[in-house]
Amino acid sequence: MTVFSIKNVGVFNGEAIERPTELYFQGSPGNILDNDLGTAGTIDGTNCTLIPGLIDAKIDGDASTAMLPKFATFGVTTLIDSSSGTAESSAMREASARNAAMPSYLASGSPVGSGGSDSDAFKKFPYRSIRQISTPAEAESFVATHSTGPVRSDFIKVIAEDPGLDDDTLVALVEAAHRRGMLAVAHASQTSAYRRVMEAGFDVVTPAPITGALDSDVVRGFAEKKIAVIPTLYFLRHIMRMGKIDEHNFSFAVDAVRILHQAGVPICAGTSANDEEGFTVGFGDALHEELKLLVEAGLSNKEVLQAATSVPSEVFRLHDRGTLKPGTRADLVLVEGNPLEDIAASLRIVKVWIHGVEVGNGEQSEGEDNGE
Q1: 45 and 76 together in one domain
Q2: Tens digit of pLDDT for each residue in 256-296?
């Protein structure tokens, strides 16, 4: 076992920054360790903070395998794709698995929807393909097909805009997913769709609503059911500036994030990062912009870091990451400064490791021996 240490560093423990301290981790592939088992290399973390690898909870990777190292460079070590088609997602999985220094990749495969009546979603959001169904029986078949075998999805994604799939079909999709231990993620940008998502029992919804203010009973229902929200504020601001929605729509989204957060609804950071012409949002850098917007929407710096680490790991059941506890993956980001004082410090990246592999090396880190 090859062990490395980062010394004299502030470590974000999920609630505060412990400093100065020392963290040990195993190299390629490797986890965080609770003690020194004989280090092969030491990295000096003076004036730096160590945070868990960031999780982008909403991307649209298509089959753009070249985006993987871009995300990694920006400290994004786990990608959750709920927009790309099934074939494209398979290609991305293979590319991620081939190189230990690339981000982990999870995906829903092709989202499911009614195809015709919810076509307005295509005008504002870059869904490349939607699997069309119309009945509860077809919902059951869709989930069964995507729960096993070569086209298995990590979770299901449903277009829940109104009008669209009827309530019985939405419920059938959620119940079929839950019977198979899968999460049900909804696309809902309307306040009316948020109510339908709540009533159907979805686990996650994206983006933040843009058509009006949420009713108090819907906010309360989201909090009671712990339905997580991925606001994608950076993407919404981007399409606002492109004229696809107006400033009033965007203000509804920001207000919704503030109200949902105050009510205790889990908030996950996600970007809808994509390279679709007319919708393009950068791979990796956009997540850091999303963090700033979440601060503006009322989250503290600590809560914003949680939204990009421990909260999505909990929501998406990725219990091997999202924290810096011994035994979890050595997905690590070393940044200059203190992101609890200045969230922009998240972008002042010194080094990144994915499962103990230093990004940029392509192989196990050799550390930086300072003679101590």
Answers
A1: no
A2: 999 999 999 999 999 999 998 888 999 999 999 999 999 99
